[in-house]
Each structure stands twice: as structure tokens, then as C-alpha cells.
Amino acid sequence: MAAIEVATAPFDDQKPGTSGLRKKVGVFQQPHYVENFVQAVFDTVDGLAGGLLVVGGDGRYFNERAIQTILKMAAANGVARVLVGQNGLLSTPAASCVIRGRGAAGGFILSASHNPGGPDGDFGLKFNTAAGGPAPEGVTGPIYERTRTIEHYLTVDAPDLDLATRGTAELDGTVVEVVDPVADYGGLMERLFDFAAIRDLFASGFRLRYDAMNAVTGPYAKAILEDALGAPAGTVVRAEPLPDFGGAHPDPNLVHAKDLFDLMMGPDAPDLGAASDGDGDRNLIIGRGRFVTPSDSLAVLAANAQLAPGYAQGIKGVARSMPTSRAADRVAETLGVPCFETPTGWKFFGNLLDAGMATLCGEESAGTGSDHVREKDGLWAVLLWLNVLAARRRSVDDIVREHWRTYGRNYYARFDYEEVDATAATALMDELRGKLEHLLDHKAGGHTVAYADDFAYTDPVDGSTAAKQGVRILFDDGSRVVFRLSGTGTAGATLRVYLERYEPDPAKQDAEVRTALASVIQAAEELAGIQRHTGRTEPDVVT
Ligand code: VG1
Ligand code: CO
What we know:
TATA-Binding Protein, binds cobalt (II) ion, binds alpha-D-glucose-1-phosphate-6-vanadate, alpha/beta, Alpha-D-Glucose-1,6-Bisphosphate, Chain A, domain 3, seven-stranded antiparallel sheet, globular
């Protein structure tokens, strides 16, 4: 068997977005599409030839097909050894854990995260570097450039490998090892958290409902929560990863995890409800009668992290994406540690974590994580909450309200306008950008603009920059509205409007969120003309 060179021609749409390449399955099924991207990675990333590569995905439709392609190309490109999760599975945080823990030169993660799967759904492919995180712009830039000039790729003519059985096989001199997708990750969780205390919590009758949404975290949650921590059988629901997620949308938000939300608001609510997304990096946390916004969750976890053994020494800093509410900033201030504000997307946290400048990170989009891996981590967030609850023995609602009394409450919501006409969405953003400098002292929704810009970021570690990361408008009362276009959508454009209002007075912290935000919502409409540009009067999804 020897490597064969296959002639190909460039596609013009292989620019990695917020989380790698994310497209409809049909796009990836085009002949040479996956191959071109993968070869571009082999051509531009050092250390893969002769090194260790990790491959795994969330099990969605086309997962195994793409993995077989990658394995053959890895062999043809001289990779020494490939670790692949059994049945092609690796959650995104587990892939990061394996890349770091085993000293890999990098890894391919196959997922479109929380987007629907199946033949008509979405697929995704991204490359993570040796640090375990999504490749930064300095790596994705050359990959993309390579896809624009590619003329051939390398593969081997070999039968597909058996991914269902653990063990080692050889492919043209490359060793391919099919590994337990949970083992390395489970071990890491056991080192970070007080498993004995959490076991006691479950033994005391504490009830959890964990919704794996027919996606990748099922096997992880069953092994860790039920087998290792003693949560009753049946705690994990929709636990089997299915190629089409059972027709469901594996996005753990209040729309797609409505059953869980309704349960948690009802009379039979367990103590904690949690869910994760397609690839296991997002988390939803709901206490009995209390939904915890991801921004609040980050703040509460930052304030309580030292209760878990892995963070007992305290945290070095917090980082949040720009649109995430500023609740965590107040905790960082109290702890006397820095709080960094980064552009949307986990890749921007990597340098801060590597440099030991931040320990916890979070995004408003249900992403929370720490320096234990270089991806956000859904099950990790659930375990940290469990550790906090085991140590404090108080309800989620109690803990959150006490947090607000101490730090104030950041009322927060994100409005998503999906599948908006791309031209209209761009026009809205361009118009806003065009008038930023004239907005100072301008009144909208009864608020006065105190500051407005198009967020630009300079990485404090390597000095790299990212411009045009979203329009943020701050009002003189501490309220804020942020506008940006999604980088992960696969149909039309998605406009995201992030709304925030700070309420320090404990007597005023119990309002309904939309009521509390009414004037900020009004300000957003006045400033951006959402209806005028998009024709929409209501967002499609509110989170
Ligand atoms: C969205 C979220 C962002 C997140 C990204 C990837 O991006 O807003 O916070 O990092 O998805 O999440 P956008 O560009 O559509 O707003 V996931 O769970 O891919 O991995
Ligand atoms: Co995800």
C-alpha cells in the first residue's frame, strides 16, 4: 500500500468561521470537499507528519464517513499514530483533553455543535492545535489560503477501519488506535472535583435530570454521573448519541430543551436540571424553579470555584466574551483578579489560559470552561455546579439570589433573528457602524449613550488583533446593547442582539427579565431599526 495523489480543485467557501468549517451535510458530501480541507491542514500545520493526531466527533450523520477519509489521509501524509474515539465519538472537550493529555500535534473534531444533524442537517470540521484548543487565526489563515490553491491531496487505497471495536490497527505504516472516548476525560474530572462529596450528595437523595439530547455527552454523563457518582439510573435521559439526534435540535436552550425547563418549573422538579449540546461543549443549568443564565452561571462559578479541589488555590482570572453579561466582572473585582473581555468564540481564550492569566472562561451562549482543557465544557460545568451544591447544601435558587444580593443582578437576554436576508443584515450593521461616533449623548429608549464602538481586540499575550467583532453601545446607567452577526449559521444571516441592565437593589431583582429589559429593548430598536431592516418585529429565539 502506498500513498496516492488525487487531483482536485479549490472550493471557494472553506474559510473557517467562529468554530471551524460549518455547512450543510450536502456541502461536505461533495467529492473532494473534506479531502481539500484536511489536506490544507496537513500542508500547513507542523508536527503532524511523524506525530500523533486525535480524531473524533459528535456522532452525527457523516461523522464516520469523514473519519474514514481523515484516517486514510493521515496515513498518506505520514502521521505516526492516530487516536480515534470508539464509534468515532469524542465530545469536543474530551477531544481537547486527549490532545493535551497524550501530547498530540493536533486533532480533527467533527461536529456542527448545537446545529441539527441528519442528511439535511449540518456538519462541521475543525482543527485543534497541540494546546488542545481551536486553531487561532494565525493557523486557520494559512489553512484557508491553502484551500484556495490546492491541486491535489494524498490518501491511501485501503478498506475502512472498524471503529466499533477498541484496539489497534495499521494503515500504511500509521498506527490507528480506537480508544474509549470517556476514559481520559473521566480521569480528569475525577482529579478536578470532589467525587466523594458529590456521591454523598446523591446518596442523600439529591435529584438531577441530565438531558444529553441524543448527542455525544450521553456516554460521558452515564459513566460519570450514574456509574462513578451514584446518581440513580435514569438520571441521564436521551443518553444515546443518534446520527440525527432523534430529529431534535441539540441546542440546550429554553426553546429546544423546553421539556427540561417545564419539568424544572413544575411541582415535580428535581434539584438540578442540566443539558448539553451536540458536541458536549455547552451547558444548560436550571435549578428547581430557577433558570440560571449562562452569564450568571459563570459569575456564580467564579465566586464558588474554590470549593472544588481543582480550584482550591483560587482562580487567576476570569475571561468572558464581549457580549456576555458583566456579572463575572464584579466577582473578579471582589476577588482581586483580572477580568478579560474577548471576541466571541472559544479560540480567543486559549492564549489567556496558556499564559495562566485566566482560570475560568465563559460565553453567554451556554459556554463555560476552565484551564483544564482548551474548549468550553458542558459536563464539567454541571460537575462544578454539583460540587458547589455538595459543599454548600443549598438550592440553586438560594445560591443565585444570594449572589445577586451580594454583587447586584445583571438582567440579560439575547435576541436572535434567524435566517434574515444577508443583505439586510449587513445593511443594518453597516448603518450602525456608520453612525457610531455620532451616538454619544444620544437618547434611546430613555437611556443616554455613554459609549459606542465596534469591538476590536488585541490579544494581551501575542498582540494579535481582531477587528469588527460587534457593535456595543453602553448607556450612562450601566445598561448595554450589543449587535453582531453570527459566524456559525448555515442559512442566511443571524442577527444577535444582546441586552443587559444592571440592578444593584435587592428589592428590584425579582422582575420578569423581559419587563426589566423593556427600555433596553426599545433602545435597541430605536438605534438599529431592526424592524425597518429585517421586517421582523419579534426575535425567533430568546435566550
Ligand atoms: C455561537 C455563539 C458563540 C460560540 C459559537 C460556537 O457563535 O454565539 O458564543 O462560541 O457559537 O459554539 P455565533 O458566531 O453564531 O454567535 V458551539 O457550541 O460551536 O461550539
Ligand atoms: Co457545541
